[in-house]
Amino acid sequence: MEEECVPEKVKGIYVPSFNDVREHVLKICSLSIGVPKGVKRKSAFTYIVKVDKIYSYVRRSLINSLEELAKTSIGGFYLEVINIAGINNYYERVTRLSRKLRIIDRLHNLYRAKLKSSLDGKEANKLFKEYVGRILSIVKRSDRELSKVRDALIVLSKTPCFEDAPTIIVAGMPQTGKSTFVGKVSSAKPKISPFPFTTKDVILGHKVMDGVKIQIADTPGILDRPLDELNPIERKAYIAIKHLADLILFLVDPLETYYSLSSQLKLLLNIVNEFGDKPIMVLINKIDNADVERIKMIKELILKEFGEIPIYCISALHGVGLEEVLKDALKRITITQHHLRNA
Fold first, then answer.
1. 6-157: which CATH topology?
2. How far apart, in whole angstroms, are the C-alpha atoms of residue 259 and residue 254?
3. DSSP-assigned letters across all residues of 180-211
């Protein structure tokens, strides 16, 4: 059975806001509590029941949720996705909040004991109000940090569910045909547009070949600039390559629809330099509209610059050459993983 991916692991975990907690606590405060016959100190009994209900709710919805998140393993790709969204030090936040809110455990025991020994209804009422005020104050002071955790969960819920399976990352500059390629060869249905930067997130598709389930991911276009100058959208492509790729398919647009060939090859050089330990295949796309001599020139230029890097000529739009690419990609992934296992 395949292991649950991170978005699946956290999707059932909800971290309420201060307003959520306040609303629920106030509902408990207004509850009518039935008191069994024979109970002499009815006020103390009623408030103890309400204290228990408030504690149970806060414990379950806040502390337990944070403790569950703290022990949920999140790999490098998902952590970097959260960082790109502006949520740094995720584990530190979750652990710190979990420890901070555990004071609620002590307050429950303290006020339960005080209510048991309260002298009359007036004192019990005062103690209960004090308890509610302290609980809400603690949650309110933590609300900003809790909001960051909720934001992280939203980001994770929108991130594809990558499994432990062979993964192909499709990369390149904007408008080279990445989305068209991924849409043709996998179950993914990325949005295709004639304008650059239409793809803003990593989009995952699947394909079964020779009994092997392959993950094929479309990525946002990357410009030919240093890694530290990439914007958050471009960085998503880089972290997908870095953490997930068993093989990289780099698409080249020979028509130079938006970006020059020199810019595209500069980006390829950046990727080779950064991720040269991963197998890379170059796909010259749009051959249905490109001159034969120009395709030949581009192939020669790539071989001159990058040595014996595998080059394929395809038309993603018309499905030309795609099966050969995928078959060879699967072979290269299998060979690479075999070498890694036996290294």
1. Four Helix Bundle (Hemerythrin (Met), subunit A) (1.20.120)
2. 10
3. HHHHHHSS------SSTT---S-EEEEEEETT
